[in-house]
Design goal:
The chain is an alpha/beta fold. It has helices spanning 2-11, 23-32, 81-90, 98-105, 121-125, 128-131, 149-157, 182-198, 226-230; strands spanning 20-21, 41-48, 60-64, 75-78, 94-96, 113-116, 160-164, 170-177, 209-216, 222-224. The longest helix is centred in the last third of the chain and has 17 residues, at 182-198.
């Protein structure tokens, strides 16, 4: 316990928690302080001035990060025949139809994304109570309901990141690993912030981006200047 406290205390050294940093400086400082024995995830969190309970204030989308997320994605695909074969060939971890639905109903949830061909949505729809709360329900807007399952699987495996504002208006995502270079993290952070800016909903009034922070799994969070995000 003492070890953890000491490490955390030292990771805060040189950080002014009341200051806002540029993206470049924040990336450098967070990366330097990611000292855990595993490859820490670098995460961006944004507080948005939206109320996602209103349809015209929902912030949701998908972004292919320039350097991927560094996360190993397990992908489940609902498809039959040639489409199922294409999904398997593209690297899907689980492929099936009614049989896959039964496995999921039985508690098998060892995947990070679900993709489905349009003709399979009748089967997938019955899993709404299981997949919905976990944010795993396939959606045409996110490219996860598509006849082109091959591309969708490849994009997911390459580190495509989905984002969605929570009830409190916070949107967050892992944008890389501590082992990434500063340049890779910089470019990924800017791409993610740019995607959130583009996703500004029509019903957003007043200040859209209230606060941005960057952190690693075990490290401190640093505030990023909102003006820096607007320029991304």
């Amino acid at each position: 316990m003492a070890k953890k406290g000491k490490r955390l205390t030292s990771s805060y050294e040189g950080i002014d928690r009341n200051s806002s940093y540029s993206i470049d400086d924040a990336v450098k400082m967070v990366k330097e302080r990611a000292k855990a024995k595993f490859d820490e995830t670098i995460e961006v969190a944004m507080n948005l001035g939206v109320d996602p309970r209103h349809a015209d204030q929902n912030v949701r989308g998908v972004i292919a990060l320039p350097h991927g997320s560094g996360k190993t994605m397990r992908v489940a695909v609902f498809a039959k025949g040639d489409k199922a074969d294409a999904a398997t060939a593209a690297g899907a971890d689980l492929v099936g139809a009614e049989d896959l639905a039964e496995k999921i109903q039985g508690g098998e949830m060892n995947f990070d994304r679900v993709i489905a061909t349009p003709d399979m949505m009748g089967v997938v729809g019955k899993l709404g109570k299981v997949l919905g709360p976990r944010g795993l329900m396939p959606n045409p807007k996110l490219g996860t309901v598509t006849p082109d399952v091959e591309t969708a699987v490849k994009n997911a495996k390459a580190g495509e990141v989905q984002f969605r504002a929570e009830k409190t208006g916070i949107v967050h995502a892992g944008v890389g690993k501590a082992s990434f270079s500063e340049q890779q993290l910089n470019e990924n952070v800017r791409a993610f912030l740019g995607a959130i800016m583009k996703a500004k909903p029509s019903g957003s009034k007043g200040t859209y981006v209230k606060k941005i922070s960057l952190s690693s799994t075990m490290g401190p969070g640093l505030k990023i200047a909102v003006s820096d995000a607007s320029a991304s």
